Amino acid sequence: MSGSNSSGPGGAHAPDPGPLLSFSVHAAPSVEADAMAQRTAGGRLQMALVLLICAAPVIASYLAYFVIRPDARTNYGELIVPPRALPADLVLRDLDGRAVPATTLKDQWLLVVVSDAACDARCERHLWVQRQLREMAGPDAGRIDKVWLIADAAAPRPETLAAVRAGVPATVLRAPREALARWLAPAAGHSLDEHLYIVDPMGNWMMREPIDADPNKVKRDLQRLLRASSSWDREGR
């Protein structure tokens, strides 16, 4: 009879199923959830490392230009910090009115001139400086594109078009001023037309040259930039 008493529901030594039941129901999902959280965190870390490795050459080149080499800080143009990325939705059109994706401007260093189609004397000088800078780049000339952004709807003069299309032609596109203002900007108190702008192959506007810039001093800026990016930038789009 003693065995019957000990195993009965009211016996002194009856096991308590509460904790065991609680353990069997909740512990396994908790372990699985922890393992899943660890896998997710590990995956995110791996992705971050891959992105960092891919971006390392670009980061290193800019560190070399802006930080490591003191002489490189004696730039002539004004550095744009942080650089301003090319808006993906920037409205661009060719002279026939066809839409041109903004991304087509990437993968080359750009020398950008902005003006109305009439192209006054300052605009003509900028277009001339633009052409001279590319020609003076020597073996790196193929890494540079000339871009003329026309900010109104008028027709350019035929002689101006002939000049920018001579030799290696410039890319001529239309873009409204209000749209361009989300990417490029003049110095305080000035207009977009008064500067030459330098854009890197990732589409980042990163330097603004002074008004009526000295081509030889702009050339030094451009040479430093080309040298700093030589490890990751290659000729051609």
UniProtKB/TrEMBL annotation:
Keyword set, alphabetical order: Membrane, Transmembrane, Transmembrane helix
Spans through the membrane: 48-68
Protein's name in the database: Cytochrome oxidase Cu insertion factor (SCO1/SenC/PrrC family)
Organism: Piscinibacter koreensis
